[in-house]
Design a protein that fits this description.
Pantoate--beta-alanine Ligase, Chain: A,domain 2, 19% strand, single chain, Rossmann fold, 9 strands, globular, 6-stranded parallel β-sheet, binds pantoate, 10 helices, 3-stranded antiparallel β-sheet, 273 residues
């Protein structure tokens, strides 16, 4: 496994590898990330992963300084997952002085996480576009756990005609249904017991909606169910799966999306309907 930390090291490694599938990450790797590496390898290309905790996608009051970091552990996991290249730029390499360009995103970036975390998706889109320019992957793999992020990145790639194929990969869950996330590391043992209720509430609501129950009422019940477990729902919504616009009744393609606060963790989840 090649580790590149400078643009020159990355260029040398890329010349040796040919077309690659890129898995962009912020480190603190878990089974969900490894499923992305596996998906890239199954597609028959060498897998490249990037590890970069991107400051521009964190709000001023968010956890950038405390975001879980485990370089040695991450590299060991990537190595045993068969990753061919790890791109680990510093903040100075990613954002050189005098940089003056950011990507402004609208459409699927407007609501939900975009409203709760102003500037977040501009930071994500900008760093992902930079990663695509640096690594020049043929395909890039993103976890569906961040459904809105996948739609924002797909929209950006289509709008800017970027020559990369976006491959969404299904969410990896713990046995109890909790979606894997690096930030789950912040949950106390007590909170870990409550956290799977978010996924259970979504699954229940999806069944009700498919069975023809009124959407607004079903979503109201789901929020109540989650709140009863001590999880503070921010939103639980039925949306168009690509535009992320809320939909009042079931039409396709639809997705149930949710965000909720448990202790200091913002839990995100979503499922198809
Ligand atoms: O999903 C993430 O970990 C990040 O948002 C990403 C895509 C690596 C961009 O920093």
């Amino acid at each position: 496994m090649i580790i590149a930390r400078t643009l020159q090291e990355l260029r040398d490694a890329r010349e040796a590898l040919g077309p690659v599938g890129l898995v962009p990450t912020m480190g603190a790797l878990h089974e969900g990330h490894l499923a992305l590496i596996a998906a890239a390898r199954v597609a028959g290309q060498p897998a490249a992963a990037s590890i970069f905790v991107n400051p521009t996608q964190f709000g001023p009051k968010e956890d950038f300084n405390h975001y879980p970091r485990d370089e040695a552990g991450d590299l060991a996991k990537l190595e045993s997952a068969g990753c061919a290249l790890v791109w680990m730029p510093s903040v100075e390499v990613m954002y050189p002085p005098h940089g003056a360009t950011t990507i402004h995103v609208n459409g699927p970036a407007q609501h939900w996480e975009g409203a709760a975390r102003p500037g977040h998706f501009a930071g994500v889109a900008t760093v992902v576009a930079k990663l695509f320019g640096q690594v020049r992957p043929e395909a890039a793999y993103f976890g569906e756990k961040d459904w809105q992020q996948v739609q924002v990145v797909s929209r950006m790639v289509a709008d800017l005609h970027l020559p990369v194929r976006i491959v969404p990969v299904p969410t990896v869950r713990e046995n109890n249904g909790l979606a894997m996330s690096s930030r789950n590391a912040y949950l106390t043992p007590e909170e870990r017991k409550a956290a799977p209720i978010l996924h259970a509430a979504l699954t229940h609501a999806a069944k009700e909606i498919v069975a023809g129950k009124q959407v607004a009422e079903t979503l109201h019940h789901a929020r109540h169910e989650v709140a009863q477990a001590g999880i503070i729902p921010d939103y639980i919504a039925l949306v168009h799966a690509e535009t992320l616009d809320p939909i009042p009744a079931l039409t396709h393609p639809a997705r149930l999306i949710a965000a909720a606060k448990l202790g200091r963790v913002r839990l995100l989840d979503n499922i198809p309907v």
